[in-house]
Amino acid sequence: MRKKIVAGNWKMNTTVAEGVELAKAVAAASSQVPSQVGLVVAPPFTHLVSVAEALKGSKVELSAQNCADKEKGAYTGEVAVNMLTSAGCQWTILGHSERRQYYGETDEKLVEKTKLALAAGLGVILCVGENLDEREAGKHFDVVTAQIKNVLYNFTEADMAKVVVAYEPVWAIGTGKTATAEQAEEIHACIRKVLADKFGAKVADDTTILYGGSCKPSNAKELFAQPDIDGGLIGGAALKADDFIQIALSF
Ligand code: PGA
To answer: Least C-beta-crowded within 10 Å: which of 42, 109, 143, 158?
Structure first.
């Protein structure tokens, strides 16, 4: 059975002190969440060491929001995978649409980043998703299929055990607009099929596929009830411990 996961992407929000307080509140409430549901938080880089400390003894795992596409050296402003593991991370998010849109993240770079992250023992939450123009042009299946193929087809079945896919329609991120459960489910099912074509049905069945884009306590239940939706990557609603935990209780 694939794992259910609710992951919080804090993006560029909170000071270190606020982040530690939020992490402590999530950690304290996490015992309410059933053992088959994994919890992950992804604070900014500056918070990782302190948040790791705040999460100690709880089931909540720690993720970065990005990593460098180089191992080490003269890359000013970048953060390498061994820095993330040494800060206490078990995961990194990669390919978030905000990184693709504002920072020129390409599928080619994501292959390099994914290689480094997996080699360092990090789990990868790989984000894919179409923008509004692509959806309106009816290209959403093609866009997401290409993103999955361009990145994940460079990896092995064994690698896939450490990969989670997050489907995040760009038009639903931070906009209050959520994909309907049907819209999300049909893309999730398509992603699973694209994975099955390369890695076989077993790997595809075992891969956790999250939905992201204005997921909140009021809509999580309906989304998570879909057969191919295995949890959520939560932005805005992850900044309130109560909402985040409420979402994790929505299976
Ligand atoms: P949102 O963000 O929940 O605020 O829409 C989701 C994400 O971008 O991961």
So the answer is: 158
Tell me the whole-structure pTM to 2 decimals: 0.98
Catalytic residue among 105, 168, 185, 188, which? 168
Ligand 1: which of 97, 132, 168, 239 to mutate, most ligand atoms within 8 Å of CB? 168
Q: What single-letter DSSP state applies at residue 30?
A: G
188 assigned to active site: no
Pocket test of ligand 1: the residue of 40, 234, 239, 247 to mutate, having most ligand atoms within 8 Å of its CB, is: 234
Catalytic annotation present for 168: yes
Instruction: Look at the chain and count its residues.
Output: 251
**Measured on CA atoms in the order 128, 64, 84, 77, is the torsion positive or negative?**
positive
Among the four given CATH numbers 3.40.50.150, 3.20.20.70, 3.40.50.10070, 3.40.50.1360, the one describing domain 4-248? 3.20.20.70
Of residues 70, 92, 65, 95, the one with CA closest to residue 80: 70
